[in-house]
Design brief:
Elements lengths: L2 H10 L1 H13 L6 E7 L2 E2 L11 E6 L5 E5 L5 E4 L4 E5 L4 E6 L7 E6 L1
Parallel strand pairs: 1-3
Antiparallel strand pairs: 1-2, 3-6, 4-5, 4-7, 7-8
């Protein structure tokens, strides 16, 4: 930034805003990254303390495909054997999910 541009910004009061902007942007909480393992025909432990913006990766360690399907139809992931699929949490609430192919597989995401 040139000194003349800086002088104009300083006179207009924008200097303070420009100096504090990086600190304000850095103060927002970073999204969490979590993993749920699908193994032996069940979902592993679902992490507690999930927040809007977090990402949950579902990793399929079984030899058969699975889904991670919300009972309210808000998400539906298909996870092939040996693969993973990720879900970004976009709203708060309690979301029950299950595997369409293996309905006994069930879990719940609690998002604040």
């Amino acid at each position: 930034m040139s000194s003349s541009t800086f002088a104009v910004l300083r006179r207009s009061g924008l200097c303070l805003a420009l100096l504090t902007l990086p600190f304000a942007a850095g103060s927002a909480a970073a999204a969490g990254q979590y993993t749920v393992t699908l193994s032996q025909m069940r979902y592993g432990a679902v992490p507690a303390g999930l927040h809007v913006g977090d990402v949950v990766a579902f990793v399929n360690k079984d030899t058969v495909p699975h889904t991670v399907t919300a009972r309210d139809h808000s998400f539906n992931l298909q996870v092939a054997p040996g693969k993973s699929a990720s879900l970004r949490l976009t709203k708060a609430g309690t979301f029950s999910f299950y595997c369409i192919l293996h309905p006994a597989m069930r879990g719940t995401l609690k998002v604040s």
